[in-house]
Amino acid sequence: MLRILLLCAGALAVPATASARDWQVDPAASTLGFKGSYQGDPFAGRFKSFTAQIAYDEADLGSAHFDVKVDLGSADTASSERDDTLKGSDFFAVAKFPQAHFVTDSFARAADGTVTAQGRLTIRDQTRPVTLKLRFAADGAQATLDVDTVLKRADFGLGAGSDWNDISADIPVHGHLKLGAR
């Protein structure tokens, strides 16, 4: 009996391995948007279709992980002409590269408590490191995750020709995800 008690006490003394909580994205309540300008006129757009596998717990950033796939053909800027241009070979080339893909490599917490996610984003055939600024708020089985970054479109071969010099070089991206616990 004493041996069983000692084994149980030993098991309790070993810390449980923590793991990030799995979250499911509510696509109807979530957005993934971007901004730019053409000839000085600003425009905003969004991707109507994307999927995200999210495992996240602010207390255990070591086991957090994001895997996001974006249907590039779902880009909507409220201009069919601009949307068609984005889908074409000078930009997303969706016939050949239908998806963008972001996967995290690591997470870090700054002294002020803010969290960033470092990862790799692939658009077309170009993969580049990207840092996301995160804001996460959980309330039981529900949460919101806001992510922000600025992409350099030339890094991904988007509008690389001189015909596209009038498009902003930096593209702010913002995601607002409504999450439910799995």
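^ that was protein a. below is b, sequence first then the tokens
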Amino acid sequence: MSNSREQILAKVRANQPQDERPLPDLSAFPARSSELQDQFMTVLSLIGGKAIKVANYAAIEEYLRSNPQHGRMVTSIPELYGIAKPILAPGDPHELADVELAIISGEFGVAENSAIWVTENNFVQRATPFICQYLAIVLPAQQICANMHQAYQRLQGLEYNFGVFIAGPSKTADIEQSLVLGAHGARTMTVFLLEN
């Protein structure tokens, strides 16, 4: 048995490349900047989320008033304190257990999968986007990159205590192989693409 093993390993060693080859250049992935918002919105709808283009924070507040959530709303965005309570400094995450809607801001989005990079600075309490029933993220419309390669390039050299990419509402297909939204986190995710 060990004789066969040694023969195989000897053949593998004998067939190693002689010179090192450089890794492929991944920076050449094309970015269609004119279509990024449309691609982001399309992908988000395919994975169960909703994107709404808005001109300013007043338009977000107007949308939320015309589509009210019955329950506690919190936000980390001072411009929306008129409609939702501020998220308090980190404390016991259980204090957020009854939150219906959390409204947070995003740093940037990724068109290929509609993921949004958010950090602890965006939502004060780490549990916020995961414990709420419904999640809304305000994202500057011009802050969308084409793919995850570009996203990770944007993050190089930056340090965060906590950061995560969030794409759509929580979902699972483990239950009888049918897609279930809101299985272990936010039931819905709305992204407000802020023009200004």
